[in-house]
Design a protein that fits this description.
The protein is an alpha+beta fold and 469 residues long. It is 47% helix and 9% strand. It has a four-stranded mixed β-sheet. It has a two-stranded antiparallel sheet with strand order 1-2. It has a two-stranded antiparallel sheet with strand order 3-4. Strand 9, helix 15 and strand 10 form a beta-alpha-beta unit. Helix 7 packs antiparallel against helix 9. The chain is elongated, with a radius of gyration of 29 Å. The protein starts with a strand and ends in a 14-residue tail after the last helix.
């Protein structure tokens, strides 16, 4: 086997074949004025007890073979060596996390912690090393990430709160995936894809038995999703196995909370409910205190003392749910108007003719079905009325993710749909939940508007609409 990238190469095979390849490479290099440096080469053996090489093997000055080593950032050899290698990488991660935690902008700091440290920082090592003795360094990596997150959010994260934070954004977490929990998913995904290639390149290759990996994984996935203990029956990717681990963690989170907590966790899985965590726009950065408050609200961290609201006299809960829907502080109205202005801005950026809250759209009827009226560009000349509504995510029975926004859109359609049709208007009710989720019609319309805006401006589509959550 021979693999090269520029002046960095790998030769692998039986000693006599490697010897011939080395001599051929040396002679070919000399023909074009290059010289091989044997002293800079490293020779590895896959036999822990060493290997007897014939006299005169290799080139003059070439070092003796070693068992422990690393290549392209991947350790191999003894378990102690691999564990030490990963521990050194974790120490490097510690330094970067300390710097990230000191970033004054909490939103930027959280994105750096999620995307540049923790699991994503160590994924390559977990995929490429068959060493099973990595638990210690990986547990330490999770601990360091937790400490940095607590410093960024300025609040302790223990027990179920931290377990929720480790879930993906789409499952209601902060996307701080656990290295310890997902390490075997990474290894299984890598070995499943490379096992046959390795066996073809080297007949002596011995792959780690699938049963040793699935035994660990089956303690982490739902009981009805257990993995088969042989390679021929395993047809799952790392992403699929990690999704099963997340599913069990999500189910356990719902089981250990009350009905209000279940509603919150379900609402967090609605479309776009976590968009504020995945979007950093330099023109619309969330102030650090507000960002930390939003994360605490998301995680179900107590924010207030229970009692009577001094604005509307209703019962005030300790988690801040009432604060998002209180009729006495104008929060819902402000949120409604902020969302309307953001959508209006996106429409105008796309070159669409958009009007704010026009009157008399239904003739003599004084009902106002449009917060925004699009007069052209979206429906081939036919006007479209966008009616924005912001609703309490906890209103109504415990149900599916995004149910409150979807129910609000249906209610608006029943009220205005037929009237708009009679007046030659397309009608789009756009529901947004107080916890950030979007209704299905809101998702559909915003997808159309952001596509048009990105096409007709210099702003990338992924930067449009993130402030609506």
């Amino acid at each position: 086997m021979m693999s090269f990238y520029l002046d960095d190469g790998l030769l692998a095979g039986d000693p006599d074949k490697v010897q011939v390849a080395l001599e051929t490479l040396r002679d070919a290099a000399q023909m074009i004025g290059l010289r091989l440096q044997p002293r800079k080469c490293v020779v590895y053996t896959l036999d822990e007890e060493g290997i007897d090489l014939p006299a005169g093997w290799g080139l003059e000055g070439m070092p003796s073979p070693v068992f422990d080593g690393d290549y392209l950032g991947c350790p191999f050899g003894s378990d102690d060596h691999c564990s030490s290698f990963v521990r050194a990488r974790v120490e490097e991660m510690k330094e970067s996390l300390e710097l990230i935690a000191d970033v004054p902008d909490s939103q930027v700091a959280m994105n750096l912690a999620r995307l540049c440290s923790g699991f994503c920082k160590l994924t390559h090592l977990m995929r490429s090393s068959q060493c099973l003795g990595l638990q210690g360094p990986l547990v330490e990596a999770d601990r360091l990430l937790k400490e940095a997150t607590q410093k960024i959010l300025k609040t302790p994260l223990d027990g179920p709160i931290w377990r929720q934070a480790q879930l993906p954004l789409r499952s209601g977490g902060l996307g701080l995936r656990s290295c310890e929990s997902h390490r075997y998913a990474a290894l299984l995904g890598s070995l499943r894809l490379t096992r046959s290639t390795c066996q073809g390149l080297w007949g002596g290759y011995e792959c780690l038995p699938a049963s040793e990996i699935t035994e660990e994984l089956n303690d982490l996935v739902p009981s009805d999703k257990r993995l088969q203990p042989d390679w021929d029956s395993l047809d799952v990717s790392q992403r699929q196995v990690s999704a099963l681990i997340d599913l069990r963690k999500r189910n356990e989170a719902e089981e250990e909370t009350d009905e209000a907590g279940k509603k919150r966790l379900r609402a967090l899985r609605a479309e776009k409910a976590g968009a504020f965590l995945g979007t950093v726009d330099e023109d619309n950065v969330i102030p650090a205190p507000e960002f930390r408050l939003a994360c605490a609200f998301r995680l179900g961290i107590p924010l207030f003392e229970e009692g009577q609201c001094d604005r509307c006299n209703a019962t005030r809960d300790k988690y801040g749910v009432h604060a998002t829907i209180c009729k006495g502080n104008g929060g819902l109205i402000k949120r409604h108007n902020d969302v309307r202005e953001q959508i209006l801005q996106v429409a105008q950026l796309g070159g669409l003719d958009a009007m704010r809250e026009p009157r008399y759209l239904l003739g003599a009827n004084k009902l106002k079905p449009a917060d925004i009226l699009l007069t052209d560009g979206l429906d081939e000349g036919r006007r479209r009325a966008l009616d924005i509504t912001v609703v309490d995510f906890a209103g109504g029975p415990y149900g599916s993710p995004g149910q409150a926004a979807s129910r609000a859109e249906k209610g608006k359609m029943e009220k205005y749909g037929s009237l708009c049709k009679k007046n030659y208007l397309h009608f789009s009710p756009m529901g947004f939940e107080s916890l950030g989720g979007w209704g299905p019609e809101a998702v559909r319309v915003l997808r159309q508007l952001t596509t048009i805006a990105a096409r007709n401006s210099t702003v990338p589509r992924h930067e449009l609409g993130g402030d609506l959550s």
